[in-house]
Amino acid sequence: MPTTTRSFPRIVKAAVAVVLSTAAFAVPATATPATATPAAPAKGHAKALFVQNDRVEGNQVIAYSRDADGSLHKRAVYGTGGKGGVLGGSVVDHLASQGSLTYDAHHKLLYAVNAGSNTVTVFSVEGDRLHRKQVIESGGVFPVSVTAHGDRVFVLNAREGGSIQGFRLKEGKLHRVAAWHRALRLNTGAAPEFTHTPGQVAFTPEGSQLVVTTKLGGNSIEVFHLDRDGVLSHKPVVDSKEGAQPFGLTFDAHNRLVVADGVENSLLTFRLDKDGRTTLLDAAPTGQQATCWVSRTGDHFYASNAGSNTVTRFRQHPEARLERQGNTPTGVGTVDSSITPDGRFLYVQTGGAGAVDAFRIHKDGSLTKISTTKVPDGVGGEGIVAL
Protein backbone atom coordinates (compact mmCIF):
# COMPACT_ATOMS: atom_id res chain seq x y z
CA MET A 1 0.00 0.00 0.00
CA PRO A 2 1.22 3.58 -0.59
CA THR A 3 2.83 5.50 2.26
CA THR A 4 0.48 8.45 1.92
CA THR A 5 -2.90 8.84 0.25
CA ARG A 6 -4.44 12.28 -0.11
CA SER A 7 -7.31 13.69 -2.11
CA PHE A 8 -6.25 16.70 -4.15
CA PRO A 9 -8.90 19.46 -3.88
CA ARG A 10 -11.43 20.07 -6.62
CA ILE A 11 -10.93 23.51 -8.16
CA VAL A 12 -12.95 22.97 -11.31
CA LYS A 13 -16.60 23.65 -10.43
CA ALA A 14 -18.10 21.17 -12.88
CA ALA A 15 -16.28 18.20 -14.38
CA VAL A 16 -17.29 17.13 -17.87
CA ALA A 17 -17.50 13.33 -17.72
CA VAL A 18 -16.16 12.44 -21.13
CA VAL A 19 -13.99 9.32 -21.32
CA LEU A 20 -11.40 8.68 -23.96
CA SER A 21 -13.77 6.44 -25.86
CA THR A 22 -15.32 9.59 -27.33
CA ALA A 23 -12.16 9.73 -29.42
CA ALA A 24 -12.74 6.38 -31.12
CA PHE A 25 -12.81 6.47 -34.89
CA ALA A 26 -12.63 3.24 -36.89
CA VAL A 27 -9.96 3.83 -39.50
CA PRO A 28 -8.15 0.71 -40.80
CA ALA A 29 -4.37 0.62 -41.08
CA THR A 30 -2.50 -0.80 -44.06
CA ALA A 31 0.52 -3.01 -43.46
CA THR A 32 3.93 -2.18 -44.91
CA PRO A 33 7.29 -3.97 -44.70
CA ALA A 34 8.87 -3.92 -41.24
CA THR A 35 11.96 -2.01 -42.35
CA ALA A 36 13.09 0.18 -45.18
CA THR A 37 16.58 0.98 -46.37
CA PRO A 38 17.56 4.34 -44.84
CA ALA A 39 18.19 7.10 -47.33
CA ALA A 40 21.54 8.83 -47.27
CA PRO A 41 21.47 11.91 -45.01
CA ALA A 42 20.62 15.05 -46.96
CA LYS A 43 22.90 18.03 -46.71
CA GLY A 44 21.61 20.75 -44.39
CA HIS A 45 19.05 18.45 -42.73
CA ALA A 46 20.56 17.98 -39.26
CA LYS A 47 17.21 18.52 -37.52
CA ALA A 48 14.75 15.69 -37.32
CA LEU A 49 11.37 14.35 -36.27
CA PHE A 50 10.83 10.75 -35.18
CA VAL A 51 7.35 9.18 -35.10
CA GLN A 52 6.35 5.75 -33.79
CA ASN A 53 3.49 3.93 -35.54
CA ASP A 54 3.01 1.07 -33.03
CA ARG A 55 2.46 -1.36 -35.90
CA VAL A 56 1.23 -4.70 -34.52
CA GLU A 57 3.06 -6.79 -37.14
CA GLY A 58 6.30 -5.01 -36.33
CA ASN A 59 6.69 -1.66 -34.58
CA GLN A 60 8.44 1.08 -36.55
CA VAL A 61 9.97 4.50 -36.03
CA ILE A 62 9.74 6.77 -39.06
CA ALA A 63 12.47 9.38 -39.40
CA TYR A 64 11.88 12.78 -41.04
CA SER A 65 14.28 15.60 -41.68
CA ARG A 66 12.81 19.06 -41.19
CA ASP A 67 13.60 22.26 -43.02
CA ALA A 68 14.06 25.69 -41.50
CA ASP A 69 10.40 26.44 -42.24
CA GLY A 70 9.26 23.36 -40.30
CA SER A 71 8.28 21.24 -43.30
CA LEU A 72 9.05 17.52 -43.13
CA HIS A 73 10.79 15.10 -45.50
CA LYS A 74 10.61 11.35 -44.95
CA ARG A 75 14.07 9.85 -44.63
CA ALA A 76 13.67 6.23 -43.50
CA VAL A 77 11.55 3.65 -41.69
CA TYR A 78 13.31 1.76 -38.90
CA GLY A 79 12.04 -1.50 -37.45
CA THR A 80 12.32 -1.60 -33.68
CA GLY A 81 12.73 -5.36 -33.48
CA GLY A 82 9.51 -5.60 -31.46
CA LYS A 83 5.76 -5.50 -31.98
CA GLY A 84 3.20 -2.82 -31.35
CA GLY A 85 0.08 -3.43 -29.30
CA VAL A 86 -3.53 -2.28 -29.01
CA LEU A 87 -5.33 -1.70 -25.72
CA GLY A 88 -8.95 -2.81 -25.57
CA GLY A 89 -11.37 -0.09 -26.68
CA SER A 90 -8.72 2.14 -28.24
CA VAL A 91 -8.75 3.29 -31.87
CA VAL A 92 -6.91 6.59 -32.25
CA ASP A 93 -4.59 5.98 -29.26
CA HIS A 94 -3.53 2.32 -29.16
CA LEU A 95 -1.15 2.82 -26.22
CA ALA A 96 -3.29 5.44 -24.43
CA SER A 97 -0.14 7.02 -23.05
CA GLN A 98 2.35 9.85 -23.33
CA GLY A 99 6.11 9.38 -23.59
CA SER A 100 6.17 6.09 -25.52
CA LEU A 101 9.04 7.49 -27.62
CA THR A 102 11.64 9.37 -25.57
CA TYR A 103 14.88 11.12 -26.48
CA ASP A 104 17.88 11.21 -24.14
CA ALA A 105 19.71 14.32 -25.34
CA HIS A 106 22.77 13.78 -23.14
CA HIS A 107 23.52 10.34 -24.56
CA LYS A 108 21.88 10.92 -27.98
CA LEU A 109 19.67 7.87 -27.55
CA LEU A 110 16.06 7.25 -28.52
CA TYR A 111 13.92 4.82 -26.50
CA ALA A 112 10.86 3.16 -28.06
CA VAL A 113 8.39 0.85 -26.31
CA ASN A 114 7.19 -2.33 -28.03
CA ALA A 115 3.90 -2.95 -26.26
CA GLY A 116 3.06 -6.15 -28.12
CA SER A 117 6.32 -7.90 -27.28
CA ASN A 118 6.98 -6.43 -23.80
CA THR A 119 10.30 -4.92 -24.85
CA VAL A 120 12.07 -1.58 -25.22
CA THR A 121 14.33 -0.64 -28.14
CA VAL A 122 17.37 1.61 -27.81
CA PHE A 123 18.47 3.57 -30.88
CA SER A 124 21.49 5.82 -31.19
CA VAL A 125 20.68 9.07 -33.01
CA GLU A 126 22.83 10.74 -35.64
CA GLY A 127 21.00 13.67 -37.19
CA ASP A 128 17.92 12.16 -38.85
CA ARG A 129 19.39 8.63 -38.81
CA LEU A 130 18.89 5.88 -36.25
CA HIS A 131 21.03 2.86 -35.40
CA ARG A 132 19.38 0.10 -33.40
CA LYS A 133 21.62 -0.84 -30.49
CA GLN A 134 19.48 -3.02 -28.23
CA VAL A 135 16.11 -4.64 -27.63
CA ILE A 136 15.50 -5.52 -23.96
CA GLU A 137 12.59 -6.88 -21.95
CA SER A 138 10.55 -4.13 -20.26
CA GLY A 139 10.19 -5.91 -16.92
CA GLY A 140 6.41 -6.08 -17.20
CA VAL A 141 3.48 -6.45 -19.55
CA PHE A 142 2.59 -3.95 -22.29
CA PRO A 143 5.11 -1.08 -21.88
CA VAL A 144 3.62 2.31 -22.77
CA SER A 145 5.95 5.06 -21.50
CA VAL A 146 9.66 5.57 -20.81
CA THR A 147 11.67 8.31 -19.11
CA ALA A 148 15.40 8.96 -18.69
CA HIS A 149 17.62 11.06 -16.40
CA GLY A 150 21.39 10.67 -16.22
CA ASP A 151 22.16 6.96 -16.31
CA ARG A 152 18.72 5.94 -15.03
CA VAL A 153 15.83 4.88 -17.26
CA PHE A 154 12.37 3.81 -16.11
CA VAL A 155 9.66 2.06 -18.11
CA LEU A 156 5.94 2.07 -17.33
CA ASN A 157 4.12 -1.21 -18.03
CA ALA A 158 0.35 -0.92 -18.44
CA ARG A 159 -1.24 -4.34 -17.96
CA GLU A 160 -1.69 -6.77 -15.03
CA GLY A 161 -2.14 -3.94 -12.55
CA GLY A 162 0.66 -1.82 -13.99
CA SER A 163 4.30 -1.59 -12.93
CA ILE A 164 7.46 0.43 -13.32
CA GLN A 165 10.88 -1.06 -14.00
CA GLY A 166 14.21 0.70 -13.66
CA PHE A 167 17.39 0.30 -15.71
CA ARG A 168 20.99 1.53 -15.56
CA LEU A 169 22.50 2.88 -18.77
CA LYS A 170 26.06 1.67 -19.33
CA GLU A 171 28.02 2.18 -22.56
CA GLY A 172 24.88 2.97 -24.49
CA LYS A 173 22.89 -0.09 -23.36
CA LEU A 174 20.26 -0.68 -20.69
CA HIS A 175 20.79 -3.09 -17.79
CA ARG A 176 17.75 -4.04 -15.78
CA VAL A 177 17.98 -3.52 -12.01
CA ALA A 178 15.77 -6.12 -10.35
CA ALA A 179 15.45 -4.05 -7.17
CA TRP A 180 13.95 -1.16 -9.16
CA HIS A 181 10.69 -2.91 -9.98
CA ARG A 182 7.48 -1.64 -8.40
CA ALA A 183 3.98 -3.06 -8.85
CA LEU A 184 1.33 -0.31 -9.04
CA ARG A 185 -1.68 -2.54 -8.26
CA LEU A 186 -4.12 -0.54 -10.37
CA ASN A 187 -7.55 -1.59 -11.59
CA THR A 188 -6.36 -2.15 -15.15
CA GLY A 189 -8.85 -4.93 -15.87
CA ALA A 190 -11.92 -2.70 -15.98
CA ALA A 191 -13.55 -1.82 -19.30
CA PRO A 192 -12.74 -0.06 -21.46
CA GLU A 193 -9.16 -1.14 -20.88
CA PHE A 194 -7.49 1.89 -22.44
CA THR A 195 -9.04 4.33 -19.95
CA HIS A 196 -7.87 2.30 -16.94
CA THR A 197 -4.22 1.61 -17.76
CA PRO A 198 -1.56 4.06 -16.47
CA GLY A 199 -0.74 7.05 -18.67
CA GLN A 200 2.87 8.20 -18.18
CA VAL A 201 6.04 7.90 -16.15
CA ALA A 202 8.37 10.91 -15.96
CA PHE A 203 11.33 12.14 -13.95
CA THR A 204 11.06 15.53 -12.31
CA PRO A 205 13.47 18.03 -13.94
CA GLU A 206 16.15 17.57 -11.27
CA GLY A 207 15.75 13.79 -11.31
CA SER A 208 14.98 13.22 -7.61
CA GLN A 209 11.39 12.03 -8.09
CA LEU A 210 9.48 9.79 -10.46
CA VAL A 211 5.87 10.68 -11.29
CA VAL A 212 3.27 8.19 -12.55
CA THR A 213 -0.25 9.07 -13.75
CA THR A 214 -2.80 6.26 -13.40
CA LYS A 215 -5.90 7.47 -15.30
CA LEU A 216 -9.12 5.71 -14.19
CA GLY A 217 -7.19 2.68 -12.99
CA GLY A 218 -6.18 4.58 -9.85
CA ASN A 219 -7.58 8.13 -10.24
CA SER A 220 -4.23 9.27 -8.92
CA ILE A 221 -0.83 10.86 -9.29
CA GLU A 222 1.84 8.67 -7.68
CA VAL A 223 5.29 9.99 -6.74
CA PHE A 224 8.34 7.85 -5.97
CA HIS A 225 11.49 9.28 -4.39
CA LEU A 226 15.02 8.47 -5.59
CA ASP A 227 18.06 8.97 -3.37
CA ARG A 228 21.47 10.18 -4.55
CA ASP A 229 22.45 6.65 -5.54
CA GLY A 230 19.32 6.32 -7.65
CA VAL A 231 17.63 3.91 -5.25
CA LEU A 232 13.85 4.03 -5.61
CA SER A 233 11.51 4.34 -2.64
CA HIS A 234 9.55 1.16 -1.96
CA LYS A 235 6.19 2.93 -1.93
CA PRO A 236 4.87 6.06 -3.63
CA VAL A 237 3.03 9.02 -2.17
CA VAL A 238 -0.41 8.87 -3.76
CA ASP A 239 -2.70 11.84 -4.36
CA SER A 240 -6.09 10.71 -5.62
CA LYS A 241 -9.53 12.06 -6.45
CA GLU A 242 -12.54 9.93 -7.22
CA GLY A 243 -13.33 9.98 -10.93
CA ALA A 244 -10.13 11.78 -11.93
CA GLN A 245 -8.25 10.65 -15.03
CA PRO A 246 -4.71 12.09 -14.83
CA PHE A 247 -3.00 11.25 -18.13
CA GLY A 248 -0.17 13.19 -19.85
CA LEU A 249 2.15 15.45 -17.87
CA THR A 250 4.89 18.03 -18.20
CA PHE A 251 6.64 20.57 -15.96
CA ASP A 252 6.65 24.36 -16.10
CA ALA A 253 9.68 26.65 -15.82
CA HIS A 254 9.41 26.54 -12.02
CA ASN A 255 9.28 22.71 -11.86
CA ARG A 256 5.58 22.71 -11.09
CA LEU A 257 3.70 19.68 -12.35
CA VAL A 258 1.12 20.21 -15.13
CA VAL A 259 -1.22 17.28 -15.83
CA ALA A 260 -3.89 16.74 -18.49
CA ASP A 261 -7.04 15.20 -17.01
CA GLY A 262 -9.24 13.33 -19.50
CA VAL A 263 -12.42 13.55 -17.42
CA GLU A 264 -12.06 17.13 -16.20
CA ASN A 265 -10.86 18.04 -19.72
CA SER A 266 -8.49 20.45 -18.04
CA LEU A 267 -4.84 21.17 -17.39
CA LEU A 268 -4.14 20.89 -13.66
CA THR A 269 -1.11 22.63 -12.14
CA PHE A 270 0.40 21.27 -8.92
CA ARG A 271 3.18 22.25 -6.58
CA LEU A 272 5.24 19.11 -6.03
CA ASP A 273 6.98 19.05 -2.67
CA LYS A 274 10.18 17.17 -1.82
CA ASP A 275 8.20 14.67 0.24
CA GLY A 276 6.11 13.76 -2.82
CA ARG A 277 2.96 15.59 -1.80
CA THR A 278 1.13 17.59 -4.44
CA THR A 279 -0.93 20.74 -3.95
CA LEU A 280 -3.36 21.80 -6.66
CA LEU A 281 -2.71 25.42 -7.68
CA ASP A 282 -4.83 25.86 -10.79
CA ALA A 283 -7.33 24.04 -13.00
CA ALA A 284 -7.82 25.37 -16.53
CA PRO A 285 -10.60 23.77 -18.63
CA THR A 286 -10.11 23.34 -22.36
CA GLY A 287 -13.84 23.23 -23.14
CA GLN A 288 -13.01 20.28 -25.41
CA GLN A 289 -13.30 16.49 -25.19
CA ALA A 290 -10.71 13.86 -24.22
CA THR A 291 -7.99 16.30 -23.13
CA CYS A 292 -5.20 13.81 -22.48
CA TRP A 293 -1.81 15.01 -23.78
CA VAL A 294 0.19 18.15 -23.05
CA SER A 295 3.43 19.74 -24.26
CA ARG A 296 5.13 23.00 -23.31
CA THR A 297 7.60 25.62 -24.46
CA GLY A 298 8.39 28.62 -22.27
CA ASP A 299 5.13 29.82 -20.70
CA HIS A 300 2.98 28.32 -23.47
CA PHE A 301 1.19 24.97 -23.11
CA TYR A 302 -0.60 22.92 -25.76
CA ALA A 303 -3.24 20.34 -24.81
CA SER A 304 -4.34 17.67 -27.29
CA ASN A 305 -8.08 16.92 -27.37
CA ALA A 306 -8.65 13.57 -29.07
CA GLY A 307 -12.44 13.83 -28.94
CA SER A 308 -12.59 17.32 -30.47
CA ASN A 309 -9.75 17.12 -33.02
CA THR A 310 -8.16 20.27 -31.61
CA VAL A 311 -5.18 21.63 -29.71
CA THR A 312 -5.98 24.10 -26.92
CA ARG A 313 -3.43 26.85 -26.32
CA PHE A 314 -2.66 28.22 -22.85
CA ARG A 315 -0.38 30.93 -21.51
CA GLN A 316 0.89 30.63 -17.96
CA HIS A 317 0.97 33.66 -15.67
CA PRO A 318 3.65 34.01 -12.96
CA GLU A 319 1.32 32.81 -10.18
CA ALA A 320 0.84 29.48 -12.03
CA ARG A 321 -2.55 30.40 -13.52
CA LEU A 322 -3.13 29.10 -17.05
CA GLU A 323 -5.08 31.37 -19.38
CA ARG A 324 -6.83 29.67 -22.27
CA GLN A 325 -6.08 31.40 -25.57
CA GLY A 326 -8.10 29.41 -28.07
CA ASN A 327 -8.34 26.17 -30.02
CA THR A 328 -6.58 25.15 -33.22
CA PRO A 329 -8.14 22.43 -35.44
CA THR A 330 -6.12 19.33 -36.30
CA GLY A 331 -6.73 16.11 -38.18
CA VAL A 332 -8.92 13.39 -36.68
CA GLY A 333 -7.91 11.99 -33.29
CA THR A 334 -5.46 14.50 -31.82
CA VAL A 335 -3.02 12.62 -29.59
CA ASP A 336 0.67 12.96 -28.66
CA SER A 337 2.75 16.02 -29.59
CA SER A 338 6.29 17.36 -29.47
CA ILE A 339 7.87 20.82 -29.66
CA THR A 340 11.28 21.52 -31.19
CA PRO A 341 14.05 22.48 -28.72
CA ASP A 342 14.07 26.07 -30.01
CA GLY A 343 10.32 26.37 -29.36
CA ARG A 344 9.51 27.35 -32.94
CA PHE A 345 7.47 24.35 -34.12
CA LEU A 346 4.78 22.03 -32.75
CA TYR A 347 4.20 18.60 -34.27
CA VAL A 348 0.97 16.79 -33.40
CA GLN A 349 0.08 13.16 -34.08
CA THR A 350 -3.46 12.57 -35.31
CA GLY A 351 -4.24 8.96 -34.55
CA GLY A 352 -7.46 8.83 -36.57
CA ALA A 353 -5.85 10.28 -39.67
CA GLY A 354 -2.54 8.44 -39.23
CA ALA A 355 -0.62 11.66 -39.80
CA VAL A 356 1.42 14.46 -38.23
CA ASP A 357 0.22 18.07 -38.35
CA ALA A 358 3.00 20.67 -38.27
CA PHE A 359 2.51 24.17 -36.82
CA ARG A 360 4.67 27.25 -36.49
CA ILE A 361 4.62 28.68 -32.95
CA HIS A 362 4.55 32.48 -32.87
CA LYS A 363 5.92 34.61 -30.02
CA ASP A 364 2.44 35.03 -28.55
CA GLY A 365 1.92 31.25 -28.59
CA SER A 366 -0.50 31.26 -31.51
CA LEU A 367 -0.17 28.59 -34.19
CA THR A 368 -0.03 28.65 -37.97
CA LYS A 369 -0.40 25.34 -39.76
CA ILE A 370 2.45 24.37 -42.06
CA SER A 371 1.56 20.93 -43.37
CA THR A 372 0.05 17.50 -42.82
CA THR A 373 2.32 14.51 -43.35
CA LYS A 374 1.01 10.96 -43.61
CA VAL A 375 2.78 8.41 -41.40
CA PRO A 376 3.15 4.86 -42.77
CA ASP A 377 0.69 2.64 -40.85
CA GLY A 378 0.18 5.57 -38.51
CA VAL A 379 -3.47 5.10 -37.52
CA GLY A 380 -3.61 4.63 -33.75
CA GLY A 381 0.11 5.26 -33.36
CA GLU A 382 1.58 7.21 -30.47
CA GLY A 383 5.09 8.44 -29.78
CA ILE A 384 6.72 11.53 -31.29
CA VAL A 385 10.02 13.36 -30.71
CA ALA A 386 11.14 16.59 -32.39
CA LEU A 387 14.86 17.42 -32.50
Describe the model:
This protein is an all-beta fold. The protein has one domain (47-386): YVTN repeat-like/Quinoprotein amine dehydrogenase (Methylamine Dehydrogenase, Chain H). Helices cover 1% and strands 48% of the residues. The protein is built from one helix and 29 strands. It has one helix at residues 193-196, and strands at residues 4-7, 48-52, 60-66, 72-79, 101-104, 109-114, 119-126, 129-137, 143-149, 152-157, 163-170, 173-183, 200-203, 209-213, 220-225, 237-240, 246-251, 257-261, 266-272, 278-285, 291-297, 300-305, 310-316, 322-329, 334-339, 345-350, 355-361, 367-374, 384-386. It has a five-stranded mixed β-sheet with strand order 1-16-15-14-13, with no helix packed on it. Strands 4-3-2-29 form a four-stranded antiparallel β-sheet, with no helix packed on it. A hairpin with a 2-residue loop joins strand 11 (163-170) and strand 12. The longest helix has 4 residues, at 193-196. It is globular and about 45 Å long.
